[in-house]
Design goal:
single chain, UDP-N-acetylmuramoyl-L-alanine:D-glutamate ligase, ten-stranded mixed sheet, about 25% strand
Length: about 325
């Protein structure tokens, strides 16, 4: 079932290399992304009607961005053209989360300077069923933080479902700042996406040491129960990961709905590009929910999506439902 979905977030240009770079010139690969955009592209490619509130500058890169949005039929009626720069980041060592290195260049970007008017918020939320947000946006500036609070309050008042990925980025703000913000908004969130580490760092979850992926799943269940003490979420979903080598990982999923836990099948795969996995996982859970699939199917679909995304070059997973659901033999 196709849904009308709105996102608010920064569009970024990613420059990356599989090896260690000594200078910016060595980052030869270029991709358009951003957590919220990545999630929307996955949802739009599966038939949902998506739009994004953002701000980008008027220069040559804008044409590439508009072309990408048009390719996936993401409505751009709420795209603002600002006078400041486009946010960028540089990523290296993409084949391992352990050694992944990211350097941001997004301070004073057009998005970080973009104040949302009440008129824009009202217009953008009109007839929407879901709002997608992450904890990255409020870290970018005081303007973005205020925008987030206002759009969350407006969506909550209109009973629009709010899907929120805590997505803590320590390079952008402190644990204390992120903790204060998250405690402000969690009681308005319907669908929460996070992991044990963020629950520990931002909300005080007493995380025990884990050695196996089974330990990770066990601690994740405890973390979800802990998070439900802050607010009773309709859905709480964790992507599950346990490193078994520098370049290899086991991937799974854990979803809690109506006090029942659902775990997806576990998959082991080599990593080609470790960026965008969490965004595709979020899209997968929401897609399954919107299609009213059984939760066991949603959990498996999300786990497969999460694992497969790490084998794809670039930020986006636009594989079809059939391709993802039929990937079990290939993944194993």
């Amino acid at each position: 079932m196709a849904a009308r979905i709105l996102g608010y977030g920064e569009i970024l240009m990613r420059y990356s290399t599989q090896s260690v770079a000594k200078s910016i010139k060595e980052f030869s690969d270029q991709y358009i992304g951003g957590a919220e955009l990545n999630t929307l592209i996955s949802l739009a490619s599966r038939g949902h009607h998506c739009s994004l509130i953002t701000s980008i500058p008027k220069h040559s890169e804008s044409g590439e961005i508009i072309e990408l949005l048009d390719t996936y039929k993401i409505k751009r009626s709420h795209i603002h053209f600002g006078q400041h720069k486009l946010g960028k980041y540089y990523a290296q060592n993409l084949t391992s989360k352990k050694t992944l290195s990211i350097t941001y260049d997004r301070k004073d970007s057009s998005f970080s300077k973009f104040h949302l008017s009440e008129e824009l918020i009202h217009s953008a939320l009109r007839e929407k069923e879901m709002l997608i947000l992450t904890g990255i946006s409020p870290a970018l500036s005081e303007i973005c933080k205020k925008n987030m609070l206002r759009i969350i309050n407006a969506a909550h008042d209109q009973k629009i479902k709010i899907a929120y990925d805590m997505n803590y980025r320590p390079q952008l703000w402190s644990k204390e700042q992120a903790s204060i913000f998250n405690k402000q908004v969690l009681d308005k969130v319907d669908f929460l996406f996070t992991n044990c580490g963020a629950a520990k760092d931002l909300l005080g979850f007493p995380l025990a040491k884990t050695k196996s992926i089974e330990d990770v799943i066990s601690e994740s269940k405890k973390a979800i129960n802990y998070l439900n003490s802050f607010s009773k979420f309709e859905i709480a979903a964790f992507n599950i990961r346990n490193s078994i080598g520098e370049d290899n990982n086991r991937f799974g999923s854990l979803i809690c709905h109506a006090d029942t836990f659902y775990t997806g099948q576990l998959f082991t795969t080599d990593i080609v590009d470790c960026i965008g996995g969490g965004d595709s996982f979020m899209a997968a859970v929401l897609h399954g929910y919107l299609n009213q699939w059984p939760w066991e199917k949603v959990a498996d679909y999300a786990a497969k999506t999460f694992a497969i995304t790490h084998t794809l070059v670039g930020d986006h997973n636009t594989l079809s439902d059939a391709e993802i659901l039929n990937y079990s033999e290939w993944m194993q």
